[in-house]
């Protein structure tokens, strides 16, 4: 695990170093999820509906059904992160 020092700007903003963005495939406009774990903060790239849809078996699901499945997956990930 690599520790990198960053500063919080006056409006609460931070800059993710370029090598971290590149390594994680984070691009401008990507959505991230911030998870608080006690005294720590974890940032995770948020999965899109299209990424989650690709992981689902072809069950002939409608877009709304895929959305519901995606929300269930996000809820499971959040529960896992809180443990």
From TrEMBL:
Domain of life: Bacteria
GO MF annotation, one: DNA binding
Keyword Thylakoid: no
Key words, A-Z: DNA-binding
Keyword DNA-binding: yes
Chain ranges of the SpoVT-AbrB domain: 3-48
Any Pfam family the entry gives: MazE_antitoxin
InterPro entries per UniProt: Repressor-like_regulatory, SpoVT-AbrB_dom, SpoVT-AbrB_sf
Protein name per UniProt: AbrB/MazE/SpoVT family DNA-binding domain-containing protein
Source species: Thermosulfuriphilus ammonigenes
């Amino acid at each position: 695990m690599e520790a990198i020092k960053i500063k919080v700007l006056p409006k609460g903003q931070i800059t993710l170093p370029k090598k971290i963005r590149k390594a994680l495939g984070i691009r401008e406009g990507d959505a991230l999820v911030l998870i608080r774990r006690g005294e720590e903060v974890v940032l995770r790239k948020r999965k899109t509906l299209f990424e989650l849809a690709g992981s689902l078996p072809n069950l002939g699901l409608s877009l709304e059904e895929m959305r519901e499945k995606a929300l269930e997956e996000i809820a499971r990930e959040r529960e896992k992160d809180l443990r």
